[in-house]
Amino acid sequence: MPDFLDTKKRLPNLGIGLGLRRELASQTLESRGRIDWLELVPENYMGLGGACRERLESAREKFPLVTHGINLSIGSTDDLNSEYLSKLKKLLDFVDAPWFSDHLCFTSCDGIYMHDLLPVPRSREAIDLIAEKVKRIQGTIERPFLLENISYYMNVPGCEMNDSQFLAQVVEKADCGLLLDVNNVYVNSLNHHFDPFQYLDQIPLERTVQIHVAGHKQGCEHVIDTHGAPVVEPVFELLQYVLERIDANGVMLERDQNFPEFEEILSEVDRIREISAAASELKAQGKAPKSASAIKQLERKQPTVSRKELAEVKHARVLSA
Ligand SMILES: [Fe+2]
Description:
Layout: H1 3-10, E1 15-19, H2 25-29, E2 37-40, H3 50-62, E3 65-68, H4 82-95, E4 100-103, E5 106-109, E6 112-118, H5 124-141, E7 145-148, H6 163-174, E8 177-181, H7 182-192, H8 196-201, E9 208-214, E10 217-218, E11 223-224, H9 233-243, E12 250-254, H10 262-284, H11 292-295, H12 307-320
Parallel strand pairs: 1-2, 1-12, 2-3, 3-4, 4-7, 7-8, 8-9, 9-12
Antiparallel strand pairs: 5-6, 10-11
Bound molecules: fe (ii) ion (FE2).
Fe (ii) ion binds near residues 148, 184 and 212.
């Protein structure tokens, strides 16, 4: 058995969480009864004082915390940034995070950060490079590490395999955990024309420690992973499909912009909790997980996004955290 699966068994079950965002911070920090844990973007707290530090300390007092980074740039040909890793380790030690995560992508090249999550050429060379980096990261940080499947809008030239094969081989060779974003799976399935349930069948779901649930919108040419709209039913269906098959240690809602009334956000957190509880009950009763056809609804209506909103998507996660 791979080592990471043993590690996963020892991780706590955090329950249902929310991404900590500056605009929602005061309401979020007062909602311990409805939210079990928080995820924060480490780049917005590393080495900072003032209001950021106060928010961090308040969150640490009230909630279990994990981090979800942007600038690890694990898929870059650049070497790992040791200064970044050192600051990240300090933050993770401060909040005593049970695990931490970043994206299976690159965000920098030749030391220049592009503030976007860019897809890696899906090659055997990239798998070797990323797996070696993951081992060094885990050795430095000394906490369990997860990689998230990103949403992508083009296939990079040089791909030797499809996205599910690449994701599976990276996390298995690296022996790390998976942060499964079911909205990203759904958005990619629409943009790249594949069956999202089949995709889930092709990746090592048992490595999933954390799950992201989010909203998206229909852009001019692509469906865009905005984190700025309500979660649609097909995404909840993918969540149900996963949770009926494996145990995750934490499921959370990502909402980064176009914020509604906070109660609307809490109601989505409640919905995730209901799906999670129903899946746990099914497993406790020893019943078989439902098939994709039993779960999915055929209607696939997308909300629409304006050109102005599209332009704002790129930096929203960094700016709003
Ligand atoms: Fe995500």
